[in-house]
Amino acid sequence: VIASDGSTDMTNDIAREYAARRVTLLAFAQRRGKAACLNDAVAACDEDVIVFTDARQRLNPEAVRCLVENLADARVGCVSGELVFEADGISGFGQGVDAYWRYEKFIRRAEAQVHSVPGATGALYALRRSAFRPISPKTILDDVAIPMQAATQGLRVVFDGRAQAYDKPSTDAAQERVRKVRTLAGNFQLLAMYPQWLLPWRNPVFMQFVSHKLLRLAAPWVML
Fold first, then answer.
1. Is the dihedral of CA 153, 212, 184, 67 positive or negative?
2. Could you point out which of 62, 85, 107, 169 has its C-alpha 20 to 30 Å from the C-alpha of 201?
3. What is the pLDDT of residues 123-182, one digit of tens each?
4. Pick from 86, 97, 99: which is nearest to 174 by CA?
5. Long-range pairs of 91-100 with CB within 8 A, sequence gap ≥ 24
6. What Cα–Cα distance (Å) separates residue 115 from each residue in 140, 151, 156, 163?
């Protein structure tokens, strides 16, 4: 299923050319945000496993197979793939972003080994359909809200570096700042939407959620 939010007719026509290969286009005439489109796309699916990807990144050929393998374990509800930055020809700033992302992935691997990752790589992850719960159309960080809902149902959220999506890092500080501001605003929004995640007896991954997602909000005060 391809969910298209306000795309051009030409883009939609290209997607329709693949109808014979079991590709279904959900074309939404009005822009309603990614979260609203995800809710509708999942509602249109009847498969046991749903794989979420973004349109921009390309995937390695074995990505989906590797993700689904993890769901052979009934305790696993969500599997995150890995976002790999292609470093050829990037700027010095881009190399810094790549270094930060490699450190981020190290943390995610460690969290998955302990229990679960409090979120997934938005460009590539798989989910048991039974674990999906509709999210608010205003949700900024859908790739945190959806996996965290699986985790709070007692399912594990794991990380599989064999499933890879390829992208280019931000090329300048202004571009990266926009992305970071959006991410941090999304973390504050999650606290307002899901205050129960701050209760250890309601959140099985309380320590990972607080240390990974919330402590960075305190970074300015910690630095002082």
1. negative
2. 107
3. 999 999 999 999 999 999 999 999 999 999 999 999 999 999 998 877 777 877 888 889
4. 97
5. 91/171, 91/172, 93/170, 93/171, 93/172, 93/173, 93/176, 94/168, 94/169, 94/170, 94/171, 95/169, 97/169, 97/170, 97/176, 98/169
6. 25, 9, 6, 19
User: For all residues of the chain together, what is the average pLDDT?
Assistant: 88
For 167, half-sphere exposure in the C-beta direction (CA atoms, 13 angstrom radius) is 20
Residue where the block lists tokens 């949700």: 139
Q: pLDDT tens across 170-216, in order?
A: 777 787 788 888 988 999 999 999 999 999 999 999 999 998 888 87
Q: What is the pLDDT of residue 11?
A: 78
The whole-angstrom separation of Cα 116 and Cα 65 is 20
